[in-house]
Write a structure and sequence with these properties.
By secondary structure, this protein is an alpha+beta fold. The chain has helices spanning about 15-20, 25-30, 115-140; strands at about 5-10, 35-40, 45-55, 60-70, 75-80, 85-95, 100-105, 145, 145-149.
Length: about 150
Amino acid sequence: MPEINHKTYIKVTVEDVYHTISTAQGWNAWFTDETSLEIYPDRTGEIRMRWINFGSEKVTIEDGGSILEAIPNQKFVFQWSPGEQISTVTIELKPFKDGTLVVLNESGYTHSERDIRACIGCSVGWGEALALLKVYLEHGIVYKQDLIL
């Protein structure tokens, strides 16, 4: 399967972006409802993401797994299982102009029907997620549960 690849420019520092993607408080501020996240001294850890009343079907979704790398202000890599197999999400942060270039890649999907559906959904979803992250960090606007906060 091909990888999922997205890039976006966010006009805030790499430190601000990294704090938002490497803490439970950061994820819950713009994207999830009840993320728990722990980074160990060796820069690995565990992440559990939870969305409550998600989407038009109002379902609760839980997923997560190992944090493989958490390099401050550079990279955050974790695994989760939105499909049949575990996939790996790599978020790299690069200083660019007056802000940060955020590069997201996800790999590990197979050719099973369930993985293909998950890959398509996550490809669209990560694009939306990066747009939400940008709007949150640049303007303080949060879009959750059909409400703009």
